Fold this sequence. Notes:
Radius of gyration: 24 Å
Helix content: 40-55%
Distance between the termini: 49 Å
Structural class: alpha/beta
Mean pLDDT: 89
Shape: elongated
Order of helices and strands: HHHHEHEHEHEEHEHEHEHEEHEEEE
Strand order of the largest sheet: 2-1-3-4-5-11-14
Number of helices: 12
Largest sheet: 7 strands, mixed
Amino acid sequence: MPTMVDVARSAGVSVATVSHVLNDTRPVLPGTRQAVLDAVEELGYTPNTLARSLVTSRTRSIGLAVSAISNPYFTEILQGVEASALEHGYSLLIADPHDDPGHERKVVQLLHERRVDGMIVAPSAEPGDLVAYLGRHRVPAVFLDRVVEVPEGDGAPRFDQVCAEGAEPTALLVGHLAGLGHRRIGLVAGRPGLSTTRERITGYRHGLAAAGLPFDDRLLVHGDSEADGGERATAALLSRAVPPTALVTANNAMTIGALRALRDRGLSVPGDLALCCFDDFAWADLFTPRLTAVAQPSRDLGAQAVRLLLERLAAPDRPARTVRLPCALVHRTSCGCPEQTEQAHVTAPERTLP
């Protein structure tokens, strides 16, 4: 098995220079760096990651805590995280917190004990223990998809965050349905406490106001971000004395639940109820009718989270940032519009907040 000495001899440099190239511990001239990398490739040299971590205090690993198993939306985000991490020479340790605050705290501690260099976390609706643990142990972390408002105070931790726009895309869905003549538009919102839920409710209300429609709290129900919850919430809306004529579902799982509730009652989309959903997904255009949806930039969110984390590792004291990525409104036919060429409209430019 080739050693670092063999690489140094082949590249015509010192062992120390090889170490600096492989560990990014000191700038090396581009030509010299390339010679080392060529020697590594030619000899098939594999660095000893354990020994390297002892020298650099880095494991070149990232902890990822997202509900990827229970929420298919996070599966696409995971793919973006994995691709970007691999591109930068990092491995992933993945844990599923199941959107449970107690379990979330445990899995984050386990990842920390595995000496990951930093973490990417999709926080639960009650992230107090999570924030306290990360702050107390000074763990470099990026919050993904969901924004956490940390109270101001001396020494209060600040975290980088990356998420998609939530309010404006939801307002666009409501406005589109109102433009088709609907006056009773319901919302199946997500789990209370999540920033994504709050923002989509805000967008729903803004969309109603912009269309000159009153807000009726009887048309807003929570589906807890799950298919079964979406089914129950939709059934509750349909049981109203005057049910909605159009519906916005606030994530892909609740969309599936809403469709089940409609099917069980023999109702058709859009004939009996127009439907628009937040979260596009791979089979959205396979339904009949095809689903009009807001598409989130899932893989880009994952890649951006890795970028922010690596920047934090390189400059631990820089100010924290929140990056918001635009969504796209994908216009299909479940809203009641006639079949046409599929259109996608970006809802807002990317923006970074201090």
